[in-house]
Amino acid sequence: MQLRAPAILVAARPHGETAVIARVMTQDAGLVAAYVAGGRGRQLRPVVIPGNAVMADIRAKSDSQLPFARIELTASRGPWLSEPLPAAAIAWTCALTATALPERQPYPRVYSALSALLDAICAAPSARGWVAALVAYETLLLREMGYGGPENESGERPEIADLAAGLEILDRLERPVGRYLIADARADVMAARRQLRERLARMDSRSAG
């Protein structure tokens, strides 16, 4: 495997004293796990953060070997990780992606939707600006994995009147997402979704008051 491409880092697990096993989402190769030497070091620690956009240089001698990767930061989500709601949204989106997708299978529509969703989370002034994109992303993953209904003819995001309406749709999606997309990792990954749902509910109650 030899690949150099833009990617979204969706997970990073410590490995040994200083390395990490990173999982990155690319447009043409899909989800790829790779060994990143020094990933826990001072230089790379701010890069190896779920949600970050990176340029990934991935190499492996055979398809059965865990690839080695060098990654360069192209866009950081770090500034938003100190904000509880965006941080919860980024954490859930990345955890869902890393868990739901099989490795090394291209899902170009998922890659594009994930990139757009993360951009919206970081750019919108409030969750009202990205909750529809989150609903559309969960629905897209279900459909791409073979569990969703037919796509609407326009392919556009669903029309959501307000945050409360978005929460209702997210609640309906919770069961199929938990049942079909995250399998054995359900408890840990769904905890991230519940945290996001609670923070969205608090925001909705404040706006209603």
What do these coordinates show?
- Residues 1-68 form the DNA replication/recombination mediator RecO N-terminal domain.
- It comes from Qipengyuania benthica.
- This is DNA repair protein RecO C-terminal domain-containing protein.
- The protein is an alpha+beta fold and 209 residues long.
- It folds into two domains: 2-76, OB fold (Dihydrolipoamide Acetyltransferase, E2P); 79-208, de novo design (two linked rop proteins), CATH 1.20.1440.
- It is 43% helix and 21% strand.
- It is built from five helices and five strands.
- The chain has a five-stranded antiparallel sheet with strand order 3-2-1-4-5.
- Strand 2 and strand 3 form a beta hairpin.
- Helix 1 (84-100) packs antiparallel against helix 2 (108-123), helix 1 runs antiparallel to helix 5 and helix 4 runs antiparallel to helix 5.
- It is globular, with a radius of gyration of 17 Å.
- It starts with a strand and ends with a helix.
